[in-house]
Amino acid sequence: MSARRFRLTRMHIFSLFFLVAGLWIALRAPGSFAADAISKMSVGLGPEAPLWEAPTRAVLLVVAGLYMAGGALGLINRWPRLSFAVLLLNGVLIFPAILIAAAVGKQTNMLTMLAESLRLATPIVIGATAGIWSERSGVVNIAIEGMMLTGACFGFIAFFFLEPLMPGATNTALLLAVLVAVFSGALMSLLHAWLSITFKTDQIVSGTVINILAIGLTSFARREFLLSTRAGRVTLPSIEIPGLSQIPIVGDVLFNNKPIFYMMFVMLIVTHVVLFYTSLGLRMRSVGEHPEAADTVGINVFFTRYRSVIISGMIAGLGGAWFSLETVGGFDDLMTGGRGFIALAAMIFGKWTPFGAFGGGLLFGFADALGTRFQILNVAVPPQWLQMLPFLTTMVVLAGLIGRAIPPAADGQPYEKQ
Amino acid sequence: MEPVTAPSGAGAELRARRRISWGELGPRLVPALAVLTAVLFGGLFMVFSGTDWAAARAALAADGAGGFLRELGPGIGKAGVAYEAMVEGATGLGYIDPTSVRSQTTMVVLLRLGERAIVFLPDNLVATLVRSTPFLLAGLAVAVGFKAGLFNIGAEGQLYAGALLAVWIGFVPALANLPALLHIPLAVASGILGGAIWGGIAGFLKARTGAHEVINTIMMNHIAIRLADWLIKSREPLILLDTTASVPRTPFIAATAEYPRLGDTPLHFGILISLGAVALVWWFLYRTTLGFELRTVGANPNAAKYAGMSVTRNLVLAMAVSGGLAGLAGSGEVLGVQHNLPPGFFAGVGFDSIAIALLAKTNPIAMIPAAFLWGGLLNGAGLMQIRADISIDLVKIIQALIVMFVAADQIVRVIWRIRARRQEEEVVFSRGWGR
């Protein structure tokens, strides 16, 4: 292929998008916002929290300038690294820019925003970690949604029956219920492993089976067991970590929170360490990249895959418990609402690494949190549009803002022992 | 390719003989046996839900296993009643007391057996046929995707896209005076177009950026659901809402846009359209160059590229055709049955269509019985709930089990002792994250 021929690449498309967006903001901002309009962004809780009085118009003009610069740089494409960095910054800036524009003349709390983003990112990050475990060993897991739904349902059913049995020990009952959620996720993943590893069923088809089965099972179980809902919704209690929670500004957000929220970080670190610093992780990855070679050196491919998929299901079950036991204190049909699929997108966004997936999850969490914030700020945008935001974000991300993500080489291929 | 040769040894020979006792018929029966297995497993759930477990435990302690089994009786009876009701609701064939049927219902008594009789209630069969129509088209849609190696989970979104455009063409006052001969084709075409665009976007993204269609079509489902919700509910600006209605929905379409009825029944022209679509898709896939290219890209993209076929074009084409068929299904429901569009109308149809495509092993002709089975299950579920007091959700479990047993047919082969499948019977559905 001749190097001179002009090819429209992803870079060009994104550059063009930012160039147009920058121009649009630059033209619209002076008309829409008065020169002395201010968006009050408070950082922290309470009246004495630090306050940043952002001049709306000026900030947006700076953003517009950055957008146009990034777009122009990307189109020229003389300095690829620089233009990529600027475009990435532009992508990150989309959300604060929207927030500042929305909060004009009003006050909004950036710390609450951060806390909300982290909270809403929890199931997505946990789901993405679950996906990493399975996919790094070469089994595509689109059934995270179904496993989370199962965990959410059976975890809550367990609590529903355990609570009357253990008067005065609600927290113990909740903890046991979380374990049941983890276990039920593991059972679903065992089915996935059985179908896709032993029977070599197409892994995406097998995942779809789990997803459909989970919808049927959970709504059936809900009608069977949970029709008499008791009053008072109990959720997992917050745990304050002494010392750390006293850190100014972020301490209360990060270290006075609920258990599954902490587990998100534990899972991230554990997954990262196991995957990249232990022989177990090395074996897992080798099975996911080249099962024949792994088999040759004596690694049991089937066993490794089974183990990874079951761990994946356990993590997904924990993610399910976030919905029913940590957040809502009840179970509704389809309560995971597509978060399992967004988790997959976060995993791809993070290129199958735990901390990359955390970044992706945070992005979706932020998009989610922005929706609620808009409603509080009374911005005249239909709620349905805001609900679309995380899904649109997923598509834009997948279309390759960050370049093509390369999955583990044997991901999705059943292994036939020679 | 040769059938799998029987292993040597006396025991193995015996086992091999048992395996092939079904003869050549066996492999063809696998989908039917998968359905049967799923129905039997579903029965277990009914027994579970119909049994008084406290009484069963007491009986087990008092009378041992015999007492326990006796306590299972009501549950088993309940499963029997449930399936009987399901068959009656789905096909109209029932074993009931003829005098219990309301007088205005059409009924043919086939065989009188004392108090009860085997009767045929045509209305139920007609309702199943109407119910199956969108599934037939949506199943075809997913199958076309599979043929090109694409897993289109986005039928639901494409149904909405098609239905939204069709309903708008149907009620917009500017077109109200159009003759039916123009109005109906225009509405149908716009429905196909809407679905084709919605599906084509995912195909384009896949071909150009490598973004996996499974995630993208799911995302586009969620977007379409919210978009439809907004378009239909929005008052400021008023877009598709019928402000005179007590529930949120679009206005009724003009009479000139409605599918004509077949006789004096709820059967509508859309059923003929969907049967025509089956023939057309079969012809397209197996008798045209475009269809051949599409299947080649699905079977082996590298070989297709090497042979000079454009993988990009074929992926977009496959998703557009797939989306177009789903759009046709969505517009059919609007033009033939509902005549307006409430939000949330197509909830769950997307997953159903995948199941139907898998059940039919992506074969267009086999889609007809598969869709009928699906429509029947859903249509029979209502009567099952009334007669046996079993939640409609049980049908979803049965459906999931059907897909499971069809997809992992080795399980069925082991249970029913059918020999292992030959290489050529394999149907490739999709390939991991599709590189």
Map the helices and strands.
The complex is a heterodimer of chains A (418) and B (435).
Chain A: H1 10-32, E1 38-42, E2 51-55, H2 56-76, H3 80-102, E3 107-109, H4 110-136, H5 144-165, H6 170-198, H7 203-225, E4 239-240, H8 251-255, E5 256-257, H9 259-277, H10 279-289, H11 291-296, H12 301-328, H13 339-349, H14 354-376, H15 383-401
Parallel strand pairs in A: 1-3
Antiparallel strand pairs in A: 1-2, 4-5
Helix pairs in contact in A: 1-2, 2-3, 4-9, 4-12, 4-13, 4-14, 5-6, 5-7, 5-12, 5-13, 6-7, 6-12, 9-10, 9-12, 10-12, 13-14, 13-15, 14-15
Chain B: H1 10-19, H2 25-50, H3 53-63, H4 65-91, E1 93-96, E2 108-113, E3 116-120, H5 122-147, H6 155-171, H7 180-209, H8 213-233, H9 269-287, H10 289-299, H11 301-306, H12 311-338, H13 349-359, H14 367-388, H15 393-407, H16 409-416
Antiparallel strand pairs in B: 1-3, 2-3
Describe it.
The complex is a heterodimer of chains A (418) and B (435). With 418 residues, chain A is mainly α. The longest helix of chain A has 29 residues, at 170-198. In chain A, the strands form two sheets. Chain A has a three-stranded mixed sheet with strand order 2-1-3. A two-stranded antiparallel ribbon of chain A has the order 4-5. Chain A is built from 15 helices and five strands. Chain A is globular. The mean pLDDT of chain A is 85. In chain A, helix 1 runs antiparallel to helix 2, helix 4 runs antiparallel to helix 14 and helix 5 packs across helix 13. Chain A folds into two domains: 10-105, no CATH class; 113-404, ABC transporter involved in vitamin B12 uptake, BtuC. Chain B has a domain at 126-375: ABC transporter involved in vitamin B12 uptake, BtuC, CATH 1.10.3470. In chain B, 66% of the residues lie in helices and 3% in strands. Chain B is built from 16 helices and three strands. Chain B has helices spanning 10-19, 25-50, 53-63, 65-91, 122-147, 155-171, 180-209, 213-233, 269-287, 289-299, 301-306, 311-338, 349-359, 367-388, 393-407, 409-416; strands at 93-96, 108-113, 116-120. In chain B, strands 1-3-2 form a three-stranded antiparallel sheet. In chain B, helix 5 packs parallel to helix 9 (269-287), helix 5 crosses helix 14 (367-388) and helix 7 packs antiparallel against helix 12. Mean pLDDT of chain B is 85; it is low at 1-8. At the A-B interface, helix 7, helix 13 and helix 15 of A face helix 8, helix 13 and helix 15 of B.
